[in-house]
């Protein structure tokens, strides 16, 4: 039986997609009354969704002014991805040393989910399986502070990580990178796990020029 998605989560996912698709552009104000009509719901799930998006860094709530889509420069995004790469690498290294049998099984199942959605060309479902995969690595590192920081930065970068899945052939390559990380963790190879996890994020920095061209194209297409 399919679990019903909470209304606030539905709104949050839709708003996140709208920002990624360029329907709501960086710096644009989000009108709660308009969102109520768009999503056919009350003010409460709208408010909860916007608060969640603020915690992730996707929007900024400015007192007496409203809620605005966050504007990050390419250099700011690159800096955040570089930090994310180091956190990912550290978490993978520690997980290779500390992961237990049950979370390792969960990691393999998440990898199979990624494979299924990559084969189907479903970027949205791949994105969620991908988020689950990385979350298991963080949760298995045995360092609570690192776990919290990795999750927090992942939330802030998730719309941009979702966008890069639209770069041609990215899902296939992402899946291959996941396999390398999972194999290294399962084999207790801490050094390989760290390098593979770090490179998995850094490749997204290298692809920023293509990512930005994609985003600009989507923005021009949806606004024109």
Task: Spell out the blueprint of helices and strands.
Blueprint: H1 7-21, E1 29-30, H2 32-39, H3 43-56, E2 59-62, E3 66-69, H4 74-98, H5 101-120, H6 123-139, H7 144-164, H8 170-186, H9 190-206, H10 208-223
Antiparallel strand pairs: 1-3, 2-3
Helix pairs in contact: 1-3, 1-7, 4-6, 4-7, 4-8, 4-9, 5-6, 5-8, 6-7, 8-9
Quick synopsis:
The protein has 224 residues and is mainly alpha-helical. The protein has helices at residues 7-21, 32-39, 43-56, 74-98, 101-120, 123-139, 144-164, 170-186, 190-206, 208-223; strands at 29-30, 59-62, 66-69.
Considering the chains and any ligands shown, give keywords for the structure.
mainly alpha
Count the helices. How many?
10
Beta fraction of the residues? under 5%
Compressed to H and E, one letter per element, the order equals HEHHEEHHHHHHH
Quantity of strands, as a count: 3
Description of the structure:
The protein is mostly helical and 224 residues long. It is 76% helix and 4% strand. It has ten helices and three strands. A three-stranded antiparallel sheet has the order 1-3-2.
């Amino acid at each position: 039986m399919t679990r019903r998605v909470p209304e606030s989560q539905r709104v949050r996912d839709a708003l996140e997609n709208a920002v990624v698709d360029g329907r709501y552009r960086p710096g644009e104000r989000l009108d709660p009354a308009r969102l109520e009509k768009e999503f056919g719901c009350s003010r409460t799930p709208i408010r909860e969704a916007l608060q969640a998006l603020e915690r992730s860094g996707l929007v900024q709530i400015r007192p007496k002014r409203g809620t605005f889509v966050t504007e990050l420069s390419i250099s700011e995004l690159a800096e955040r991805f570089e930090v994310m790469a180091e956190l990912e690498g550290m978490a993978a290294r520690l997980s290779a040393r500390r992961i237990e049998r049950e979370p390792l099984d969960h990691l393999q199942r998440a990898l199979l989910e990624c494979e299924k959605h990559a084969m189907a060309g479903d970027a949205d479902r791949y994105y969620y399986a991908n988020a689950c995969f990385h979350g298991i690595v963080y949760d298995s590192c045995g360092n609570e502070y690192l776990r919290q920081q990795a999750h927090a930065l992942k939330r802030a970068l998730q719309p941009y990580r979702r966008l890069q899945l639209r770069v041609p052939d990215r899902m296939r390559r992402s899946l291959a990178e996941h396999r390398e990380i999972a194999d290294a963790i399962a084999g207790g190879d801490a050094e390989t796990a760290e390098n593979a996890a770090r490179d998995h994020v850094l490749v997204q920095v290298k692809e920023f020029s293509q990512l930005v061209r994609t985003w600009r194209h989507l923005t021009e297409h949806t606004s024109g």
